[in-house]
């Protein structure tokens, strides 16, 4: 089985695939962030929109087919546990586009509503 793009060491099916299929909800903000990174990697735009807070969610999402996501580093996080309703996750997502390596460095905000973590925006 293919390894999960989020580099947890687990297979995709057992890791972020469970969240993408809707078999489970990400229990923490960091797990949601990892699963969203994996969704970008596998091109699951439906999952990205589903986990995007309605206040900031774009009407449609088109992924750049040139971008290949290579590695995710979680830098820091605040809150976001199963006891929290808010959290932030700072990360570096490494990618290649047109043969050029680059990275996205972002501190993302998340809220939990009705038991589900949702991405709000980037600081
Ligand atoms: Zn994963």
Automatic annotation (TrEMBL):
InterPro entries: NTF2-like_dom_sf, SEC_C_motif, YchJ-like_M. Residues 28-121 form the YchJ-like middle NTF2-like domain. SUPFAM superfamilies: NTF2-like. It comes from the Bacteria. This is SEC-C motif-containing protein. It comes from Rhodoglobus vestalii. The lineage of its organism: Bacteria, Bacillati, Actinomycetota, Actinomycetes, Micrococcales.
